[in-house]
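FORM 7B: Structural annotation worksheet

SECTION A. Query
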Amino acid sequence: MKENPHSQDRDLIRELLKQYENLKQGRSSSFLEEEAFEKIISHFEENEDMAKALEASELAIERYPYSSTLLIKKADILLTNRQYKKALEILEQAALFDSSDINLYILKTDAYLAMDEQQKAVDLLEEALSLFEGEEKLELLFELADVYDDYEEFDKVFDCLKMILEQDPNNEEALYKVCFWTDFTGRNEESIRLHKQIIDDFPYNELAWFNLAAAYQGLKLYEKAIDAYLYSVAIEEKFDYAYRNMGDAYIRLRKYKEAIEALEKVTELAKPEDVIYEAIGHCYDRLKNYAQARFYYRKASHLNQEDSKLFYKIACTYFNERQWDSCIKQLDNAMKIHKLQPEYNILMGEAKMELGLMKDAIQFFSNAVRIRPRNVSGWEALIRCLYKAGYLDEALGQADAALKITNEKPLFLYYRAAVLLASAKTKEALLQLEHAMIKSPKLLRKFIELNPSVLQNQQVVDIVAKFKRNKSI
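SECTION B. Predicted structure
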């Protein structure tokens, strides 16, 4: 039977610590090799006893004064103790004995950053890049990328990752990171060129296909993005992020059935997420399959019970099915969480109006206007409700207020004309209608929607006909 290697390690360190204590006591027979000191220092570091680690490193350097490795270990301990200048002095000393140890540059970088001397850190790493090759050069490039990230030079982060991938096209860490930084910096065209080159050399690299797709998506080239995502999942069929992004691309193209298929694949491969269920619900909503939309919005709300927007979306599905009471019930849930949302108040007002509860509706529309006074939707709903309820004086007053606050939006000129016409102020109404049609002829439909019977008024028909002869609507 083989001995437990962990037990062997414990026995070894126990023996080394015993010899170390003998050495400290000055027993002449005690002797420790350089590597033994390294193990002892590491042991104290792992146990977070930095005072003993520092003491051991000093004793080790007394015995091996020309050891760059031991000097570097001491500098690392000093950095942990926030003794940055002392650490730099020790590292300079270590460099005299061996300047080829990459840890010299990484620890110096840490010290400069801790002292807020970013430029020295950058200069050091850039200088070091010419001294190393292979894995060590890649490590320095990652370090340099982190420095640029800390100091918000984000384009240079992208440049470092690009250099890594040019040397090591299959480097997973760089492939994951460059996807984020491509999106953050907007350098999609460069990312496309970079990943096309990687794919030419390594056609079965699913991360390269994914990054290529994401860059196309960043440029709103959704068809090309989908094609690249399909290659990615053909190589790695459990690549849930590819299906997720593919679903988004299909939604952008209004291909809702395909989006549902992709997003349902995400639910099979990854932990349930409210945003995925919400997106599937949105697709069914767009397909006018309101029952299925509700089903997925509810699944999303079970995972995120504080998201009032999900209750609002469920309410919208009921509104579209003319189920006013169910709509109101869901809006009550939404407004318990966020009462002061204009959209919730407007939809509540619409549902109340459909039930003939005009005073309640007016109250909710008034709430929406008070919450967001420059929002056209709230004013439009309030004036329309007042008009339909027969509160013409109030409707006229609100139309005047809306015109003032919204910088004379033409819609309210039409509404003002409609209210004046209903109030038997025909001459003023017709002048207002002409003025509105000059400002925005396309909004005439809003005037007609408010009361389609106005088309039976010959004077209104004459103004519309005259305007059509003079200008194309």
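SECTION C. Observations
Residues 153-270 form a domain with the Serine Threonine Protein Phosphatase 5, Tetratricopeptide repeat fold (CATH 1.25.40.10). DSSP finds 27 helices and no strands in the chain.

SECTION D. Sign-off
Analyst initials: ____
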